[in-house]
Design brief:
Helices cover about 55% and strands about 5% of the residues. It has about 200 residues and is mostly helical. The protein has a two-stranded antiparallel ribbon. It is elongated and about 60 Å long.
Length: about 200
């Protein structure tokens, strides 16, 4: 069977969003799924979670094995796992309700900063090539609250680079940051990437 994009997306949903690989308890939390005890009885002698996963995806265990070593899948898993570990804090859990809601919110945006428009790929180039140096920050986009006085929610949050997120902080309103800082930050990062300027920090 050809592994389609739909199958890959479903695999990501089960493994990275619902955390199905963590155990039958996590699987039982999936809407309309069987209880933990029922899952254990049905799959414990048939191949465990792998058998459940293959059945849900409509593929066999060999195809599942090939899917799990697919480079595209591995890259997506790594990115989502990092998002889950580093970004889904208790405050964000309270605001979004579940990681599925948080993940769907995350997927609804392009992988770039809301303010300066710089993509995470370009930020990675800047950090990897030493054009940006930091002991605290990297190319990972942050979850930015447009209004820092309000809770985390899909309406109040956007993706932002570490530079914009920390420059704006809770000191500058969204409107003033967009008006006075977004374009200069975008120009700075583009010039830095193009080699037009340097950003040497003395120790």
């Amino acid at each position: 069977m050809k592994i389609t994009k739909e199958i890959k997306d479903k695999y990501i949903e089960y493994v990275c969003v619902y955390r199905a690989r963590s155990g039958f308890k996590e699987i039982s939390q999936i809407p309309n799924e069987s209880t933990e005890e029922e899952l254990r009885i049905k799959y414990s002698t048939k191949g465990g979670i792998s058998a459940w996963l293959a059945e849900k995806l409509g593929i066999d265990l060999l195809e599942l094995g090939n899917l799990e070593i697919d480079n595209e899948i591995k890259e997506k898993k790594e990115k989502i796992d990092k998002l889950f570990r580093n970004q889904f804090t208790q405050k964000r859990k309270d605001g979004f309700g579940s990681f599925m809601n948080f993940y769907n919110w995350y997927k609804s945006f392009e992988d770039k900063c809301y303010y300066c428009g710089t993509s995470s790929d370009n930020l990675k180039i800047l950090f990897d090539h030493g054009k940006l140096h930091s002991d605290k920050f990297n190319s990972t986009l942050h979850i930015e609250r447009l209004n820092p006085k309000e809770e985390y929610s899909d309406d109040n949050c956007r993706l932002a680079c570490s530079l914009c997120n920390n420059t704006k902080s809770d000191l500058i309103s969204k409107e003033n940051y967009v008006k006075y800082f977004s374009e200069p930050m975008s120009n700075f990062l583009q010039d830095l990437k193009d080699g037009k300027i340097e950003n040497k920090i003395r120790i």
